[in-house]
Model the fold of this input.
Amino acid sequence: MSIKIDNISAEQQKLILKISEGHFCDLKSIDINPAKLTQTLSAFANATGGELYIGIDEEGKGKRKGRKWRGFADQEAANGHIQALEQFFPLGDHFAYSFLYCEGSDGLILKVEVHKTPDIKTASNGIPYLRRGAQNLPVDTADKLERLKLNKGITSYENETVGVDYKLLESSPVLSKFLSAVVPSAEPDSWLKSQLLIREGKPTVAAILLFAEVPQVILPKHCGIKIYRYKTRDRVGSRQTLAFDPITIEGCLYDSIRDAVSKTGEIIENVPILGPGSLELIKYPTITLHEIITNAVLHRDYSIATDTKIRIFDNRIEIESPGKLPGLVTVENILTEQCARNSAIVRLINKFPNPPNKDVGEGLNTAFDAMWTAPLWLDR
Done:
């Protein structure tokens, strides 16, 4: 397969030679073993993507350390590297190969662009790697592999079982009210089993989160919502700038989302900001608060023992959803890409009356649109 050659200017070449190696970029010599390169591509693909430049030498040490452009003599000279890489990372949606040529410079640089992949990519040694800073860290234990699967949305903690008797859910008013609206009607025991919310006599995490009256008692620190009000515009709030003790929201997910949206809106309406000519009280679009908080709660990683956090500052609101972005979702494509980390929770909460997640995949776009049309005089 022919790989395109991009001609770059001397100025562009200088920029490449000055690139800092880190979480999103790596530079390698053409002398490196191709098998070693597969570790870098695996690491990028399993994290958030990145770029690899092959044909850059490191020269000198300490303050005298520098870089030199020394590429492949021609495309054929890079065949060994390309074949080794494409065996594990074929050209396609997630991997792109190209050559860079700068007139007057030594040879062709092979550039590989890597995007975050939905599946786990292993290197030629059969081990997956994960990019952390400028390092490629091996995912070489069962615990590390399970964490990577959770991070990528391949597995979900919602399917794990909880060490309590599922019959405690049968007396839950949340489940009773829910089943009263289910068509056709069903008994709690048979319905929970039919939805795969019970395994070996134990309820799943999803079952507890959705139908236990107070899931936080059963899964402490895994599913609460904390609201903080900081009277500052600083980047980080402090104990000294807290307006009052943090508010804890508890209850099943359906009730928690509703209560968190309501309480957050109530607090915000008492935050004065400088308007066109004076201090004014503001009101965020309720739909924005609803959609962002709903996303934070439904798509968080419930294996992480920390609460969903809502931080209200004088000039902004921060909502922290524990866990990494799942699947192919990145900061750049979050408005267009979809991936439900907790598919059972997302599906079943939509069956509640007036569900919080009405339009699948449209929530964040709705939130953004509402914010742009809101009469706010905040820093933009």
